[in-house]
Specification:
The chain is α+β, with helices and mostly antiparallel strands and about 325 residues long. It has two domains: about 140 residues, Immunoglobulin-like (Sandwich); about 110 residues, Sandwich (Immunoglobulin-like), CATH 2.60.40.10. The strands form four sheets. Strands 1-5-8-9-3 form a five-stranded mixed sheet. A four-stranded antiparallel sheet has the order 2-4-7-6, with no helix packed on it. Strands 10-12-15-14 form a four-stranded antiparallel sheet, with no helix packed on it. The radius of gyration is 27 Å and the shape is elongated. About 30% of the residues are buried.
């Protein structure tokens, strides 16, 4: 069992379906629970080996989704021949960021339609934002005027999902420089040192969205919104410099159970446990061959579930709330 567990624990979801992956991780976590239990019987161990082997063999690949890159390809072909000429460095940097990102998405066979569409929008906006240099530009910039006004400048934050960008060295400071776990929303303050709007780049698409919330003088407030799965992460780059890594936090369970210790249940008999939560939780048995779970009723914030032993004596299963990785308890068919 230890050998099987060691083989399985390094498998990643990749392109496996959510359903088959959930069954696999359930069996894997149940196996870990059994391995860590000094009181596990041989029947429980054998049952866990069977369940994990079945779940591993049952991992199924997702069908390849149909995507359309034609609009992005046409736009990219139009934009790639544009040269900087008299365009400002700031608008050109934003444009090349979006252009390079579009190229990486075109070359990425697993890019989703949402990512493709977002790249079309970003490249279109950056192309429209190309600004010619003023004929009376002086080196070193202005010394008295305010280049940014809070909330009314009409400026926008450049956001991309490409990590290797031809951007100038960082000319900013950030109030966040260490890796963070994000559960909900997180706002970063960036202070520009050169009077230019910071360019924020998301290292991995589909994990976070970045939005400019407000600006005040040279301070820009950028909100990170997690859209990926718990555990996914993305490097946050500002003006081509990696500042920190943001990780989608796994929500802490707010469900309380009246049963947390392992228990035994005779074949074809049932047990009812109570869960207390703000909303109806989901409960699954790690091995559907050993136990069946049924919702009974709700009384206020208390939810009652019935567990029935349907397997053979010695078979075991963990019970998982809201797809958490750790079972709330483990039961064995007596």
């Amino acid at each position: 069992m230890q050998t099987l567990y060691d083989t399985c624990k390094v498998i990643t979801q990749g392109n496996y379906t959510d359903v088959s992956w959930a069954a696999f991780t359930t069996a894997l976590n149940n196996a870990k629970f059994i391995l860590d239990s000094s009181s596990a019987t041989q029947d429980q161990i054998n049952s866990s080996v069977t369940a994990l082997t079945t779940a591993q063999n049952g991992l199924a690949l997702k069908p390849n989704p149909t995507t359309d890159k034609a609009a992005l390809q046409t736009l990219y072909d139009t934009c790639k021949v544009i040269t900087q000429g008299n365009y400002t460095n700031a608008s050109w940097a934003a444009f090349t960021t979006a252009l390079n990102n579009a190229k990486s998405i075109l070359d990425n066979s697993s890019a989703t339609q949402d990512v493709i569409n977002a790249s079309v929008t970003a490249l279109t906006n950056s192309q429209n934002g190309l600004t010619e240099k003023s004929s009376n530009n002086s080196s070193g910039g202005s010394s008295g005027g305010n280049s940014h006004s809070s909330g009314s400048s009409g400026e926008s934050l450049t956001v991309s999902t490409e990590t290797d960008q031809p951007l100038p060295a960082a000319t900013f400071t950030s109030d966040t420089t260490t890796d963070i776990h994000v559960n909900g929303l997180y706002t970063v303050k960036l202070t520009s040192k050169d009077g230019k709007i910071p360019t924020v780049v998301l290292g991995t698409p589909g994990v976070f969205e970045a939005q400019l919330v407000s600006d005040n003088g040279s301070d820009y407030y950028v909100k990170l919104i997690p859209i990926g799965k718990p555990g996914e992460q993305a490097g946050i780059y500002v003006n081509g410099v990696k500042v920190f890594v943001a990780i989608v936090e796994t929500p802490v369970s707010s469900v309380k159970s009246d049963t947390t210790k392992p228990f035994r249940l005779k074949s074809h008999s049932s047990y009812i446990f109570k869960l207390t939560a703000d909303a109806k939780p989901t409960v699954i048995a790690g091995s559907a061959f050993a136990f069946k779970v049924e919702f009974v009723k709700a009384v206020g914030k208390d939810y009652f579930f019935k567990v029935t032993a349907v397997g053979k004596a010695g078979e075991t299963s963990g019970f998982y709330i809201n797809s958490e990785k750790v079972p709330m308890t483990v039961a064995t068919v007596a």
